[in-house]
UniProtKB/TrEMBL annotation:
Keyword list, A-Z: Methyltransferase, S-adenosyl-L-methionine, Transferase
Similarity comment: family membership: Belongs to the class I-like SAM-binding methyltransferase superfamily. Cation-dependent O-methyltransferase family.
Name of the protein described by the UniProt record: Rhodanese domain-containing protein
Record-annotated Rhodanese domain positions: 292-388
Coiled-coil regions listed in the entry: none
One MF annotation (Gene Ontology) recorded for this entry: O-methyltransferase activity
Native species: Triparma columacea
SUPFAM superfamilies (UniProt xref): Rhodanese/Cell cycle control phosphatase, S-adenosyl-L-methionine-dependent methyltransferases
GO annotation, biological process: methylation
Amino acid sequence: MSTAAADSAPTPGDDLYAVKVSVCPELRESLHLNGREKRGRMFVERDSKAMGDVQEFRQTLHDFFRALRKGEYLIEFGRGEGEEGEMRERVDGDEDVVRMFREAEERFEDAQGSGDEEAPKRPTAYVHILENPDFVKEEWKPEWMEGLKEKVEESQGWSMISFYSFPKKGISDPETFGENLRRVWKHFGALGRVYVAFEGVNAQMSVPTSVLPIFTDVCMEMEELACMENGINVDEVISREEFEKDRPFKNLHVRVRAQVLADGLDKGLDWENAGWDMTAEEWHNKVQEVGGEDGPILLDCRNDYETGVGKFVNAEPLGTETFKDTWGKLKERLEGVPKDREVMTYCTGGIRCVKVGAWLKQEMGFSNVGRLKGGVIGYDRMIRERGEGKESLFQGTNYVFDGRVGRQITEHKLGKCITCGGETNLLANCNNKACHKKMVQCSTCRKELDGCCGEGCKNVFVGRLGRTTSRTVLGKERVEFDPQVFDDVQGYCEEYSSGVGEIYGAIQRNTEKHLPTGAHMVSSGIQGRLLRTMAGMGGGRVLEVGTFTGYATCCFAEGVKRGGTVISLERDPKACQIAWHHVLAANEGGWGEGGRKIAERELEGGVGGTVEMGSGTTVEVRKVDDALVHLEDMAAREKEEAEGFDLVFIDADKGRLLEYVDVCIRNQNILAEGGVILVDNVLWKGAVVDADENMWGEGGEGDGGEEKEEKRLIKLNRRRRKLARIMHEFNGAVCRDERLEVTMLPLRDGLTIIRRR
Ligand SMILES: C[S@@+](CC[C@H](N)C(=O)[O-])C[C@H]1O[C@@H](n2cnc3c(N)ncnc32)[C@H](O)[C@@H]1O
């Protein structure tokens, strides 16, 4: 049998032939290939059918380069890594396949005899996949696209919709599925915020009402969405005029996340065993029976700011700040309650109650759990459409997750204005994007404060409208930073950069599981992609200071040239163990699905080690007591023999960054000639911008007379300021150091590139 594997080898053995594959740019583009499918390596077992049968060989190719299944293409083989001008031959029939492997074997034998250290470890064939010029490409134009554009343009309304799915088998490749959703949905003029994860999909969107039935049909044709238990949940329809004045969603964002609904649980449950769905009508009747000794218990599973402005009569809010608080609150509330007592739960659109229901049943043992189908949105729709004079038992305003913020269902004013304390049912987010607090605020105060939560935010907001980016705190000028805009830009960059293999999702999830408090530290997103690229640019030797759970280590190992070396230093044994587990998983199963599956197993392996990967790259996770001391030792010990590193990534204790840079710069056996240093977190979430001593002033904090809001902001920022000041000082020092050439990139949390002048 032939074996195809992502670009890492199974255990090296004499019985494997390697096939290095590259795909031409035109095909990459037209087939929408993801990162790992553009080039890679697969293995074929000696004497397998794939070595002598062109159909079998193609089949083996398809196992790894899945997208090729869809396309018409030609195969050529060459004798090296595809340098310019290299002669290639077409692989049309079985004889060509036989010749390709025979030549690979001959080259291998010659190289063994030559004593060349660079010689490959096994016979290697070089294959290039290119477009078939004779193939007339059919334009991608599914039937549903016929006349769609015109229908979208004619639409007089936009439907606000939401839906979720938890497919039984999960979503094996969320990146690719997310790309596919984007590709399809853009033709509908759909906007919104959609999360895709291995566990499923969670979407809040607006879709032109004229094409909603077609949109629904197209979604239902996708296996990952066809399993939606409650279908598409339609909220209100907004007229064209209103929509154009103030769009609830401005763009279509499809984001890949570790979970579609972050629950903070350390294991997933069976989302199909989550109680039963109650129709809105059943619910309406049942709500009236709530209470008493034995009656149903009615729990509102939304957060404080949501329950504060609207809820069902007789409902008990759980009192959570975020969804992750739910489990503790449920335990508290239901302690001692008989397990067969009926428990009814509801949320906005239903997704939270899937997780709540599963937990109540599987973790707490309640047998009688009912959930409101379609949540408050579904109930409201029933009352409007089929309620026949029924009075809504949901009173007040339903908080929603788009620009509308709230939808008023009844006149009840359950909320208290955060500014004046008066009764109101109005909800909003603070207009200062950097704050964006969810708040209950009456219309008078909202008007007075320009839609902000307080005077401080108002100053920022009004200042920004006037296109200035500064405001005055304690009589001193501060420059403001807008994380919202910043995050959007980073997300956009990520969306339009090559994807990453599935193993990286597993690394993030494992980090959240085993070291949750540090989960934000992994170099994911756009930064991981840059590290992968940069690792391949130098001479192939990479040193990382601060491994944590090995995300960046894996990026380096994936990106570095064949035969390269990646060494990563870490002092925390737990982090070392997790990182080592990830390196071993990548080695065994590659960067894709295989690696992901192995990474998802229980942690195994010790606290570090060295492995030679199939690509010939050596990766080492080294447990050290202190990376700085270790580097100084390395510099002294290896003065003569060591060749130094082409890339040094400094991502450990922020207080000693200058010392790390210094030891690298002074020693060519640490930072090789022409090598570069990368330093992470140099922007410290933007706080460096106003971390300057002069701006913060000596007795600033706690001085009398300042506004209450300013005091609050300052307190909140105490830790952030301390680290911001450290980073700010570092930035100044390296910039002034005449030995160095420094370029700071506003990438993610800020990345500085340093090299010797
Ligand atoms: C920001 S995390 C590294 C993240 C990782 N580079 C990535 O991109 O995924 C910093 C790591 O440095 C480690 N660390 C901090 N000080 C250290 C020291 N003096 N020696 C070795 N490791 C250190 C911490 O234990 C932590 O795991």
